[in-house]
Amino acid sequence: MVALDLLGRRTTLRVLWELREEPMTFRALQEVCETNARLLNIRLTELKEAGLVEHGTGGYRLTEQGRSLGAALEPLSAWAEEWARNTPIEQSALP
Fold it and tell me: Rounded distance, CA 72 to CA 66, Å?
């Protein structure tokens, strides 16, 4: 439940998604996540404490555990893509 709580927080999944390929600086991550600096700083701190993100040369990056989480979420991503293709509800209508 702790993991689901963390992943359910605003911008958490977006941060993990954006870091899936290469390290990013704070400013670059803030821009692509379309969030404010305070919230991003909070999420990065939480993700570092959870062992999913680390800061080093080149900026923030996923740890081995973070990459493992990404692999675990791939089936959910595939399901969501299919769901989006087959669901007539416009995404803007979703809460």
Answer: 10
Distance CA 66, CA 48 (A): 10
pLDDT by position in tens, the chain (length 95): 999 999 999 999 999 999 999 999 999 999 999 999 999 999 999 999 999 999 999 999 999 999 999 999 999 989 989 988 888 776 555 55
Give, as one character, the DSSP assignment of residue 52. Answer: S
Go through the domains of the chain in sequence order and give each one's CATH number.
2-93 (1.10.10.10)
Residue pointed to by tokens 């404490």: 49
Let me know: does 59 contact 28? Beta carbons within 8 Å: yes
Degrees (nearest 5) of the Cα angle 45, 27, 74?
Answer: 65
